[in-house]
Amino acid sequence: MPDVPTLPPCTAGDWDNARRRRRLRDTRTGHSWRRFGRARRFLARTAIATVPLIALYTQYWHFDVAPMREQLAETQPRIHHIYDAQDADGRDTAVVDLVGLGNLDATDTARALPALSGSGTCGQSSTTTPVSTPPW
Questions:
Q1: Contact indicator for 85, 121 with CB cutoff of 8 Å
Q2: CA 65, CA 58: separation in Å to the nearest integer?
Q3: DSSP readout, 41-108?
Q4: Widest Cα–Cα separation across the chain
Q5: 3-state class of 120 per DSSP?
Q6: Domain range annotation of the chain
Q7: pLDDT reported for residue 57
């Protein structure tokens, strides 16, 4: 005969919902916490629930944000004049292209777009080289 204790047979009439609930309550995490028990269980559950969110954020930062920050830190931004104002009254209006962010230069594209030439200015600037380099 095996050394396993034998239990008396259980019938459907032996089932008791109150006993089941009491047993679940007695075996749950933190059942013996008398002081601030609800708050401690809430904090424990919240801490466990935030672990996957922190893991996802860490992955996002490592593979997306950090490489882009390094790339932008190595750029040298410059401003190119594309179109100047046609008359002296519109001298405060000009189309410029800020290039160098992410090592991309769209100066040729900006010069080729006819919509930029019609935005209150006419005629191409005589200066096609970078006008100035910002001090940063």
A1: yes
A2: 10
A3: HHHHHHHHHHHHHHHHHHHHIIIIIHHHHHHHHT---EEEEEE--SSGGGTT--EEEEE-GGG---HH
A4: 110
A5: coil
A6: 33-73, 76-136
A7: 97
Place of tokens 């559950």: 45
Residue-wise pLDDT for 19-61, tens only, equals 888 888 888 877 787 888 889 889 999 999 999 999 999 999 9
Q: Taking residues 72-93, what's their average pLDDT? A: 70
Query: pLDDT: is 107 or 87 the higher one?
Result: 107
Which residues lie below 8 Å from residue 97, measured CB to CB, with a gap of 6+? 79, 80, 82, 106, 107, 110
For 99-127, what is the mean pLDDT? 62
Residue 43 CA to residue 30 CA, distance in Å, equals 11
Q: Which residues contact 118 (CB under 8 A, 6 or more apart)?
A: none
